[in-house]
Design goal:
This protein is an alpha/beta fold. The protein has two domains: 256 residues, Alpha/Beta hydrolase fold, catalytic domain (Rossmann fold, 3-Layer(aba) Sandwich), CATH 3.40.50; 197 residues, no CATH class. It contains 15 helices and nine strands. The chain has a nine-stranded mixed sheet with strand order 1-2-4-3-5-6-7-9-8, with helices on both faces. Helix 1 runs antiparallel to helix 7, helix 7 packs antiparallel against helix 10 and helix 8 packs antiparallel against helix 9. It is globular, with a radius of gyration of 24 Å.
Length: 491
């Protein structure tokens, strides 16, 4: 019965992968996707072979990449627009690190505005305004770019928008689209339209001379899912069509569901593939309750205090130095407890490590890179990944051994991992200004445990938790090193 269930699960996962690939590839049908550069800025161009519509420039949010914006890029390209999506400095495949003061308008923001205007100037047609679309961090950059070049930058489509530069007079042509669960950003959109009409509500189109604005709320949508919202894409297309007097219409694809289906299918296929690994006899050593609380609470309190005091600043990635040290101290403490209990079982399978790395990075990672977000490191990031692994390896090894590769009771796994998340919160409290960006690690870690946790658990069941701990430590270093922005002081 179990064998039949496993075969059925594998078949369903394979069908999910193939169906999702068909859906994702259909979105690209008829669209030429080419890779260019403006100076050192990587640019992806999306356009039908005979496209002659207006030019649209798309910018991503903080810790994002050009690939994350491809749902909007493809839907606009299908409607005859010529679309250019680029990587901000420090992001994606851009080798130039972010610089300047990230908290000051005349710091990092000024440099990103200059970069945006350089891209706009390079792709614009003489005498024709360029439409721009951006998400989150990019919205403030695009607003300020439009204020500097009002003749060159035309309509703005802003997703999850915020900017202190908006006035009643400028930008003139702007729609702000926010998720229903982004109340603060919805409030900003309403404030911007009420500069024109104090009685305006979400969904109202307001005008005052040549100023036209609209604020839109998308029900049940948050900060990330807005990048795949079909309603959001339709609003963006309608806004550009109205501004440029175009009539392009397309059927908006369910890109988010196709992407989730593909990635879920790849994760699901890891189970039968892990079953091909030679089976080892594995002793299951469940930790006593007292030791579980010790391994969770002591480092949760002590590690942030020690790591913030040491204040290591070596790596050219925001908060990466701190995070590597934090993970190292956390993992070493827990490994020490396991050693004291004589539970530090370090027998590993080289084949298991290679298998998990291959499936987790070469298959899952490349699928994510093609359809979801940048996941291929540029050369400048490899040494950052290597440095991060000094922290992620002991951390994930301790996690795998303490949870027995997922066989420990659920409450024990929850306590150990909540202890880690609590330590990140305490670190931010101790140094809010310097470590604020650590808050972005929490959702990344949750996704990591969900996605790679399953893969690691299935490998651990065959060849032991130490194997999955080593492999997952390397994968975590890779994921953090490839996704967080490069940053250099000064500029």
């Amino acid at each position: 019965m179990r064998a039949a269930f496993d075969r059925l699960s594998a078949l369903l996962a394979l069908l999910l992968v193939l169906t999702s690939l068909w859906g994702l590839q259909s979105m690209r049908s008829g669209i030429d996707i080419t890779y260019e550069s403006v100076g050192q800025t990587p640019v992806i161009r999306y356009a039908a072979a005979d496209a002659d519509g207006p030019v649209i420039v798309i910018a991503h949010g903080f810790a994002g990449s050009a690939q994350m914006m491809q749902a909007y890029a493809l839907s606009l390209a299908q409607a005859n627009y010529r679309v250019y999506a680029f990587d901000f400095e420090g992001h994606g495949r851009n080798p130039v690190p972010m610089s300047g003061d990230v908290t000051a308008i005349d710091g990092t923001t000024r440099l990103l505005v200059a970069q945006t205007l350089e891209v706009v100037a390079a792709v614009a047609e003489k005498g024709q305004p360029v439409g721009v679309l951006g998400h989150s961090m990019a919205t403030d950059v695009l607003v300020r770019a439009a204020l500097q070049r009002p003749a060159q930058i035309g309509p703005l489509v802003l997703l999850s928008a915020f900017s202190g530069a908006v006035t009643a007079e400028a930008p003139r042509d702007m729609v702000m689209i926010a998720g229903g669960w982004e109340q603060r950003l919805r409030d900003f959109g309403l404030e911007a339209v009420r500069m024109i009409d104090p009685a305006a509500q979400e969904g109202d189109l307001v005008r005052d001379g040549d100023v036209v604005r609209k604020a839109v709320s998308l029900p049940y949508i948050e900060h990330v899912s807005i990048l795949h919202s079909r309603t959001g894409q339709q609003e963006a297309l309608d806004w550009f069509n109205g501004a440029f007097e175009q009539d392009g219409e397309v059927e908006i694809a369910a890109s988010g569901w196709w992407l989730l289906g593909l990635l879920a299918g790849i994760v699901g296929l890891a189970r039968p593939l892990a079953g091909l690994l030679p089976k080892r006899e594995i002793a299951v050593d469940i930790l006593p309750a007292k030791e579980v609380w010790l391994m969770a609470l002591v480092p949760a309190v002590s590690v942030p205090s020690i790591a913030t005091y040491l204040d290591v600043q070596v790596l050219p990635v925001l908060v990466a130095d701190y995070l590597a040290l934090h993970l190292f101290l956390f993992g070493v403490f827990q490994l020490g407890v396991l050693w004291r209990l004589d539970l530090l079982r370090l027998r590993v399978s080289a084949l298991g490590i290679v298998a998990l790395l291959s499936w987790g990075l070469a298959v899952f990672g490349l699928a994510l890179d093609r359809y979801g977000a940048n996941f291929v490191p540029i050369p400048e990031r490899w040494w950052v990944i290597a440095a991060l692994s000094l922290g992620t390896l002991p951390f994930m090894l301790a996690d795998a051994l303490a949870t027995q590769g997922g066989k420990a009771p659920l409450w024990q796994r929850m306590v150990l991992r909540l202890g880690f998340f609590a330590s990140l919160v305490l670190a931010v409290v101790l140094d809010f200004e310097g470590l604020f960006f650590l808050m972005l690690i929490a959702p990344v870690m949750v996704l990591f445990y969900v996605v790679y946790g399953f893969m690691g658990r299935w490998v651990a069941a065959r060849v032991g938790p130490a194997t999955s701990g080593v492999a997952l430590g390397l994968i975590l270093a890779y994921a953090l090193g490839v996704s967080f922005p490069l940053f250099a002081a000064g500029g």
